[in-house]
Every structure is written in C-alpha cells, then in structure tokens.
Amino acid sequence: CMRIVVVIPTYNEKGNTLKMIDILADEFAEISHEMLLLYVDGNSPDGTADVVREKMKKYKWLHLIVEKKKRGLGPAYVEGFKYAMKELKADYVMEFDGDFQHRPDEIKKLVNEIDQGYEYIIGSRYIPGGSIPDEWGFMRKFLSVIGNLVARFGLIMPKIHDLTTGFKLSKVKGVLDKVDLDHLYSKSFAYKLHILAQIVNSGARVKEVPIHFMHRTSGESKLIKNEMGESLKVIFLFQIHNPKILKFLKFATVGFLGYVVNASTLWLFTRWMFPGPLAWGFSTELAIINNYILNNFWTFKEVKITGFGRLVFKFFQFNFTSIGALIIQTVFGTLSDIILGVKFRQLALPFIIVLLVLPYNYFM
Ligand code: GDD
Ligand code: MN
Q1: Cα of 150 from ligand 2 centre, angstroms
Q2: Suppose 28 and one of 35, 188, 218, 246 were both cysteines; which one would form an S-S bond, judging by CB atoms 3.0 to 4.6 Å apart?
Q3: Radius of gyration of the chain (CA)
Q4: 220-254 confidence digits (pLDDT tens)
Q5: Measured in whole angstroms, how far is the alpha carbon of residue 224 from the centre of its chain?
Q6: pTM above 0.90, yes or no
Q7: Does 72 contact ligand 1 (Cβ within 6 A)?
C-alpha cells in the first residue's frame, strides 16, 4: 500500500473546493492505497483556504499550504511537491486541478497503473479514449493541439502524446526526487514541460492513460497570457543542455568543415591542373582526415582514441568505412567532369555530397 498525495493548487476556487473535497473523500474510499489531499492556495481573496481549513476538522488526510501571494502555477506545484515529499512522506505525488476540468472519478484510473509497475503516469487527452472539451471553439482546440505538437517534436518525444496535460501521477523515489525543482526553466505553466522532459529522459517507466478534459463550468481560468513563448523557451534551454543534441550539433559542424576542406582543396587541385580522379580523390581524402581528427578530439572527445598505434589503426578503420564515400566522390566527380566540364566542379560537389554521400554514410 503506497501513500499518494494529490496536490491541488488553487486561486479563487471557493465554490469548486467546497464540492471537490467531499467528492474526493468518496473517491479515495474506493482506492486501496493511502490517499492524502494537499491544497496549495495562492492566498485567494475569496477565502478558498478557509473552506479547506473547515473541512480539515472532518478529514485528517486533508492538508493545506497557503502561499504569501499568488506566484503562478509552477511555484505553487513546486512548493506542494516539496511539502508532499518531505513533510507528508509521499511515495507518489499527483498533479490535479481544483476546478473539475479533471474528473475526480478518473483518479483511480491513473492510480491503478502503479500496481503495473509504472512510475510516471500521464493523464492524456490525445490518445484514443481521451478528449478535450466539445465546448471549446475551433481556435482553442487548434492552439491546444499545435502547442502540444510543438512540445512533442521540440523535446523529441514522439512516444508521448500529451505533454501539456495537468493531470499526472509521479513516483517520488528515483523519479520526482531526481528532478531539480529549484531550477526549472519557467515559472508559468511551461514549468511542467521541464519536469516532464527530465523525468521521461531519466528513463522512468512511463504510461499514458486516456482522460476526458472537461469544460470549466464555474470560476475563472487563470491561464490568461499566451504560453507559447514560455514553452519555446523551455524547449530551447532544455535542448541546448541536452548532450545528445550538443553532440549532433558538433557532428554537423565537423561535417560542414569537412565540406569546406573538400571544396577548397578541390579548387586548389583544379588550379594546379591535377588529373580529374586525383583531384577528386585527394580532396575527398583530406576531408575524411579532417573529420576523423575533429570528431576524435572534439565531438567524441570522451571516448578519444589515444596512443599512436591505436590512432593509426583506427584511422585506417575509419577510412575503410569511408572508402565508399571516397569511391562515390571520385567516380561521380570524374563523371561530372566529363559531362559538365571542370568549370562546374564546385557546383557538382555539394550535389554529390547531399544526394549520394550523406545517404551512403547514413546507411553505413
Ligand atoms: N496557488 C495557485 N497559484 N494556484 C493557481 C494559480 C496560481 O498562480 N494559477 C492557477 N491556479 C490553480 C487554479 O485555481 C486551478 O485549480 C488550477 O491551478 C488550474 O488553473 P486554471 O486556471 O484552471 O488552468 P487551465 O484550466 O487554463 O489549465 C489547465 O489545463 C492546461 C492544459 O490545457 C491546467 O491543468 C494546466 O496545467 C494545463 O496545462
Ligand atoms: Mn482549469
């Protein structure tokens, strides 16, 4: 039996909160785990916190934090998560909205996945069985879908279908406690993208469960400003710190420098009137040497090849895999000399690289 803390941030949700707590009491009674509820109120002027305090007399599993002032959804959740982990000793923490846009009767669907060994369970609107409100106009639906797609491809997470949902369940040990909550890239709604990206990339066992995101019928939404800019900021900052992306950028840079070496020496060898195959072959080989050295000492420096003997051995091995590129460039370069003439060498080179060498290297 696990201890699960449901965290609900609120700002001016008095009416919803009054109903929510009793409804959750009934829902929790049906779940075999130990369920706790934690409200994080942004010091709502409508007295939301008083409603919670009143209910706390009746329910011992109900807890409340009141922030000094409204600071946005991100900081409210971060404070709630920390309190749930440290003070309430949560095994799992759930994100849940207090305005009935998330259905209380769907909490158990997410909780059930714990028993299947899942560590990060996402309430998803964009998988079969999930939905966004029918009441939303075309533009609202469109923005929600597009925003989600941008995040999905920007963070390179094609396997996850809903990255912006606010209905999620996360294991604490080894998952949420590994997230650096004090340095999230955004203080607004986009904070959740950064937490999600960290957790998914850490290799946690992730499961998406379909949910119905409901239309808000009472109280007002606090998501006023457009979150697109904040989301793009999180995606950008996350990716430039991503070692895989960094490596890809270095690799691409080396490839480009290889092209520069190739093109400039081809130009020189043309001026020096080298015979066609020799000019193409030598300039290609120089580019291969350039790429070998830069990739060894820069792109992949942590697995750097050292020692003279190994360096030479690896160089020949590298050349062996590059031999196809060497042959392709020499053969097709000479062919273009014959068909188009030597004048068009600098034009033929990028075409040969993009159309033939890159696909070949990719498959190799
Ligand atoms: N403490 C605190 N401070 N609570 C807040 C704040 C704040 O600054 N802003 C909003 N809340 C509370 C609300 O009272 C509500 O219980 C919950 O957080 C969600 O806020 P809404 O204003 O209802 O957000 P929404 O419906 O526009 O956004 C929901 O859907 C989005 C996806 O469409 C949220 O679930 C988002 O997280 C989600 O991205
Ligand atoms: Mn809402």
Answers
A1: 21
A2: 35
A3: 29
A4: 777 656 678 889 999 999 998 888 888 888 989 99
A5: 24
A6: no
A7: yes
pLDDT on residue 117: 97
Helix, strand or coil for residue 69? coil
The residue-averaged pLDDT of 314-342 equals: 91
CA-closest residue to ligand 1 atom 29:
166
Distance CA 72, CA 75 (A): 6
CA of 1 to the centre of ligand 1 (A): 30
Rounded Cα distance between 26 and 107, Å, is 12
The alpha carbon of 249 and the centre of ligand 1 are apart by a number of angstroms equal to 37
CB of 42 shorter than 6 A to ligand 1: yes
Give the tens place of pLDDT for each residue, 74-120: 999 999 999 999 999 999 999 999 999 999 999 999 999 999 999 99
3-state secondary structure of 99: coil
For residue 27, the surrounding DSSP H or E stretch is helix 14-29
Closest listed residue to residue 328, CA positions, set 314, 348, 342, 313: 348
Is 77's C-beta closer than 6 angstroms to any atom of ligand 1? no
d(CA 197, CA 199): 6
From the CA of 227, how far away is ligand 2's center (Å)?
A: 14
pLDDT the model gives residue 262: 96
Q: What mean pLDDT, rounded, does the chain reach? A: 93
Do the beta carbons of residue 169 and residue 52 sit within 8 Å? no
3-state secondary structure of 208: strand
Structure tokens at 84: 């749930």
Sign of CA dihedral 289, 294, 299, 300: positive
Nearest ligand to the CA atom of 10: 1
Separation between Cα atoms, residue 314 and residue 302, nearest integer Å: 16
Indicate which atom in ligand 1 lies nearest the CA of residue 42: 1
